[in-house]
Amino acid sequence: MNTLAINGGVPVFREPQTFAPWPPVYPETGDKLREIYMSANWSFYGPAEAQFCQEFAAYHTSEYGVFMANGTTTLECALAALGVGAGDEVIVPSWTWMATGMAPVYLGATPVFADGEKDTFCLDPAAFEAAITPRTKAVIPVHLFGSMADMDKICAIADKHGIAVIEDCAHAHGGKWRGKGVGSLGKVGSFSFQQSKIMTSGEGGLCTTDDPELFETISRLKHIGYAPGKKRGEVAGGPPQTGLLCHNYRATEFQAQILLDQLHHLESDTVSRAENAEYLRKRLEAIPGIKTQSPGRCATMQSYYVFGITVDPQILKPGISKADVIAAVNAEGATEVFGGWGAVTYKQNLWNVSPEKYRVASADVVADIIANRIILLGIQWLMSDRAVLDKLVEAFDKVMKEYSR
Asked: How far apart are CA 358 and CA 354, in angstroms?
């Protein structure tokens, strides 16, 4: 009766578990989008953009928000505003999406890859400090999956060495560290609103900062040199400084309105996901061989993009890998269980930067552990009821009993 479904047994979920399409859709947003369409005011600092930037920044305990095209342009503009350019080094975690490493490359700087921590998977402060050289200008810690980088230690090290901190918060909308919003702990916070993210408008990004000068520079960088809030034909604020290479990285009123409505659901959804994550943590860690990703040590509200677990290969039978575990759990009807990116940043398929353009500062011991052990549960699981979560745990328990030594 306990034969795995992948071997012809009866699956735990009699029908594959299905979820509502991501992202959540709110009918009232559709009405507002029609109003924007009929207004013909679709871009250039419209009212929805202004309101969204103000409310999103305030939610994350920051003074300013700059809305733009995506979460890669936010990183690029943050680095450029801090003066990062050719000859400089920017330390980034080995385990992150390639955009974190590509942003320095776009500016002619050198990304330097440092290993992560075994429990959070985020940038290891000790590895960060060991990677510092006289050329180091900035560091980009990433709040990854369902944890936060150790911002206390990272900021202390950065302050000691005169290094700017840019938080990559693409996975962390709504998270709080000692009561302060993510994105407010370094010089600049960078958020992504790509299709899969906690808050999404299909594409989009936003920088947060408390520094008025950085706010103005980032605003000019994303809006072809215009001062914050200025549009075509408006010259107030004067031209951008000589040599500041500005871009058209604008987003639209449609995206801003979608995100503004999502923001009003963020707190309740974040609390619900965090509670379900703790429930899952206790249930899954009772299964031999399974550990869960540690939340941020000082997280007063941990935000979850996905829920990360690891499977100890030492407990598995010879020839069984994490891929086999994922396939077997999927066969039990548990969809949205997958293996992540599968490689450290500079080994990902899309990373085609010449080796002389980046530096690997530390052995990727933890990153390789993540690659070989990580299993991710999609955000939809954390929005499910407890009965569904119990069945998910049952599926993992069934598979691990069969595949363990």
From this structure: 8
| Low-confidence spans in the chain with pLDDT less than 70 | 1, 232-236
Q: At what angle do helices 386-403 and 253-284 cross, to 10 degrees?
A: 50
CA distances from 31 to 21, 34, 349 (A): 20, 5, 41
In order of 85, 127, 155, the CA distances from 296 in angstroms are: 31, 18, 15
Cα maximum dimension of the chain: 75
Report field, pTM of the whole predicted structure over 0.90? yes
- Per-residue pLDDT tens digits for 178-197: 999 999 999 999 999 999 99
The residue to which tokens 């009561």 are assigned:
179
At 394, list the tokens: 């049952």
Task: Give 36-40's long-range contacts (Cβ < 8 A, gap of 24+).
Answer: 36/253, 36/254, 36/257, 37/254
